[in-house]
Each structure stands twice: as C-alpha cells, then as structure tokens.
Design a protein that fits this description.
Helix Hairpins, Chitinase A, domain 3, five-stranded mixed β-sheet, two-stranded parallel ribbon, about 25% strand
Length: about 160
C-alpha cells in the first residue's frame, strides 16, 4: 500500500468531511430513501433513484477518505529541518519571467489541491518542477499553453 503525503491541515480537512458524510449526509439520504420508498412504485420513482444515486456517491467518498487516511503520511512542514529548497508542504513565491506576475503556491497532496487557494498537487507539472529547487532558481514548466518560466523568490515552511 503506497503512502500518500498529506499536510496536517489536509488531514484535519478530510477528517471533518468524513464526519459530515457519516453523521449528517448519510442519515439524511437514508431518510430520503425511506420517504421515497413510501411513495409507491420504485420503477417510476425519480426521487428514490436520485436518492439512491446520492447514497452511492456518499458511500464511495467515505470509502475513498478512509483509504486515504489509512495511507496518509502526514507531513508537518513546520517540524521539518529547514533547508532552502522546495519540499512537500512548503509555500513558494514565484515571478513569471514573461509578464512579471507574482504567484504563490503551497505544495500539497492530491485531496488538498485547490487552484482557487493556490494549493497545487506535488505531482502536477508545476509541483514536479518546483520540488527540490532553491530560492533564486529559474524553473521552466510545460503547460498546455506552452512553456512558462519562473524565478523562485521565496520559500516558506508554514
């Protein structure tokens, strides 16, 4: 079983999601299925089928989260020996060398990745390009829109 790196915050987040799925969403959907059953013929009952489909999604996500927790290799970047390079869990500030735009990314696990928060998966193209690099290093990332060139301006372990 391959370990999956996850930040401490990421583990807390998925445990909260698991609690909500088990204690709130699962009981609600069981109630909805029971109620829909009471409406008669199940073959023609759209509410019943929608509720069963939702139940399947919830149960699938519960299994997925339990598996992730079982394989989790929790990495608390604040407790690691500080080096000067980009590692899993670090926050990296970059400058796009083409347009001088500044960007900051946190390198995280798959379930934590969220572009709206600038959390990027460590196995994504940019994540792979950044891991192991140092401040002031130039990094080239292949993207669907072509190659992007960045300079690392800061690395934080927070």
């Amino acid at each position: 079983m391959e370990k999956e790196p996850i930040t401490l915050q990421g583990l807390v987040k998925i445990k909260k999601e698991l609690e909500e799925l088990k204690n709130i969403r699962r009981p609600k959907i069981i109630e909805a299925i029971s109620e829909a059953r009471g409406h008669g013929d199940l073959k023609e009952n759209a509410e019943y089928h929608a509720a069963k489909e939702e139940q399947s999604k919830i149960e699938g996500r519960i299994v997925e989260i339990n598996d992730l927790i079982a394989r989790a290799n929790v990495i608390d970047v604040t407790k690691l020996e500080k080096k000067d390079n980009v590692i899993f869990g670090s926050t990296v500030s970059l400058v796009d060398l083409d347009n001088r735009e500044k960007k900051t990314y946190k390198i995280v696990g798959k379930d934590e990745a969220d572009l709206t928060k600038n959390y990027i998966y460590f196995r994504s193209p940019i994540g792979k390009a950044l891991i192991g690099k140092n401040k002031k290093d130039l990094v080239t990332v292949s993207t669907p829109s072509g190659e992007k060139n960045f300079e690392i301006t800061e690395i934080k372990y927070i």
